[in-house]
Amino acid sequence: MTAILQDKETNPFESMMSRFDIAAEKLKLDPGLYQILRSPDREITVSIPIMMDNGQLKVFTGYRVQHNIARGPCKGGIRFAPNVSLDEVRALAAWMTWKCAVVNIPFGGAKGGIICDPAHMSMGEKEKLTRRYTAMLIDVLGPERDVPAPDMNTNEQVMAWVMDTYSMHQRHTVTGVVTGKPIELGGSQGRHDATGRGVMICCDQAIKRIGMKREETRVAVQGFGNVGSIGARLLFEAGYRIVGLSDINGGILNDHGIDVHAAIKHYQETRTLESLPGTTPCTNEALLEAQCDILVPAATENQITSQNADKLHCKIICEGANGPTTAAADDILESKRILVIPDILANAGGVTVSYFEWVQDRQGYFWTEAVVNSELERIMVDSFNAVAAYADKHRVNMRIASYMLAIDRVAYTTKLRGIYA
Ligand code: NAD
Prior knowledge:
Layout: H1 2-10, H2 12-27, H3 31-38, E1 42-51, E2 57-68, E3 74-81, H4 86-102, E4 108-115, H5 123-136, E5 146-150, H6 156-170, H7 191-210, E6 218-222, H8 226-238, E7 241-247, E8 250-253, H9 260-270, E9 280-282, H10 284-288, E10 294-297, E11 316-318, H11 327-335, E12 339-341, H12 343-346, H13 349-363, H14 369-394, H15 398-417
Parallel strand pairs: 3-4, 3-5, 6-7, 6-10, 10-11, 11-12
Antiparallel strand pairs: 1-2, 2-4, 7-8, 8-9
Helix pairs in contact: 2-4, 2-15, 4-15, 5-6, 7-8, 7-13, 7-14, 13-14, 14-15
The structure holds nicotinamide-adenine-dinucleotide.
């Protein structure tokens, strides 16, 4: 029974839909619009035959789910992983619709995935898989239709292969078909730091909201990859006191503050955080429960659950990761009056700069990093304030407010467009 409950608590589709349902009810969403927004526009499953390096033919299953295009072309990553499922891709596609709507960029949501084990595939096999998947989706992708990006186990190189394959079919170079490309192929300055930078901007807005100053704010960050390490570095450089850091193998604490530059150097040299001089090692559970003002879960999903939410000591949670908090934990955090900056707002810096990449590709004119960062700041601050105003007006927490704002925006454009039949 406990296992069933836990599965339900951590299922990504259930998790997203439970928040969607609360927000839809509070908005008194029209039942017809409710049905439209709950259902993905299109789900595509492809069987991808690949000749492996050992001469054997193998057929992989791939998905692309386009959840909604009311506000513009679909946007969302492609992941390679053994446990990809249609249910998961469907939930992540809807999540992208809400995330793009929260930051008010003109995209709908999509997600793609291929069931494979990239750790046991050669570069050549991954290239063939990417190119054949792209070719099989050629009619549904495009700068005006659906614009993929990197996700779990895909990167700049995979995006370059998608762009090249799409361009070969179009008979000309189309850089705007994907984002997260290498700079030399139409990528954007500032994309690498964008999600961590968005996290820092959200923390700034949140402490302003509760009347704290950077220097007196203690921060613990879970995860030391792209989002966690860059978020921690930018917060440290801005004057926050970083009291905890962790990666999958465990964490480190120092209540007087950790020098994040030294931690990054140590991590590059040793691939571990433990043993950083002047810090005390801790488990990931202990890191989440550390004495701090802001907790930044920036590792993976389902870290804050009904099992540990009650043990947290922070005043603010800024969700760098996607889905780090379960819906059951939300209620506990609310009763503890912890301010949660929800993932669809807190980590939207990445998709915002992806939007800038798409704009620059279409303009054929590229911005400086300073322009990218200042445009990102404008959008993140406006979005934070829009969600906070919604929360105040409707007397709901920031999570439900962000869903309400997003659903309201998508529902409004759907109504304006009308139902074509
Ligand atoms: P990454 O692979 O670069 O880093 C992940 C980090 O989390 C690593 O340090 C890893 O050791 C750690 N980790 C993994 N499992 C852990 C666990 N159980 N406990 C503690 N640490 C653990 O990934 P990333 O790009 O930084 O993404 C992190 C999260 O942010 C994911 O949820 C991702 O979907 C989300 N996200 C990323 C971006 C982006 O631009 N990279 C944008 C939006 C959302």
